[in-house]
Amino acid sequence: MNLKRICALSLAAAALTAGAACAAGALKEITVASGNSSVPNSYVSKGQHLGTEPDIWAAIAARTGLKVNFVTGEFNTLFGYLDSGRADTVGNTITVNQKRIDKYRFSEPYAYIPEKLVVHEERTDLKRLKDIDGLKCGYSAGSNGGNLFKQIAEKEGIKVELAVFDSSDLLNEAFRQGKVDVMIFAGSEAAFKIKNGFLKARTVEENIAVGEKAFPFRTDEKSLALRAVVTKAIQEMKADGTLTAIYQKWFNDDFSQPPAGYVSPWKLD
């Protein structure tokens, strides 16, 4: 190989290295669409953005150097921010499901939380999923609740009446007024709301499923690069106990690892 050829290859390799460095350096900030009323995951109180999501993203920012910007809204607006490019991901304890996998690329899951039926505290007769036959089941627009209720009805051979609400606040208020018999919450959220008096309710003993919670990203080059950075941070936070500490703070429990014997049905590579 002659000297000119060697020089040309060296320059090309240097250009590729420099380009990769520039691409990595360009990832200086990330915009996260997050809920304004999803207690305790992401909510705004007295002008402050609080919840597990802000805490998780503060930890991600600390270890990656990314500046994290939030845009907040009701749950049914969050994926609109992502799809329009006004946000890079959604941080609102998003459940992985097939419909979302078909459209987005998910980060490493950062929580594994059982989905629970939430019923009025006096309904101690409701112990199994099949017991909600004929009841009015409410869920927030854009959430995974409607899909889960339909899956329960099909699997258990029962019928339920579905009612959709524009926000978590409206759903919770309808439940308090007795206009809704059953809701679906992540087990962590249900425990927090019941413990802290947000709802007079109980959870049905039988779990619906384990919900893997992860951050969805679009499939363009920049989004996939951000996904890689965030996934690496999540893996480190699982290993060093950072996520455990956040969940202990909010729930007095740890959701950072899959339950014993759980096998994920999803391939998120």
UniProtKB/TrEMBL annotation:
It comes from the Bacteria. Gene3D superfamilies: Periplasmic binding protein-like II (3.40.190.10). Pfam families: SBP_bac_3. Residues 29-254 form the Solute-binding protein family 3/N-terminal domain. Keywords: Signal. Residues 1-23 form the signal peptide. This is Transporter substrate-binding domain-containing protein. It comes from Pyramidobacter porci.
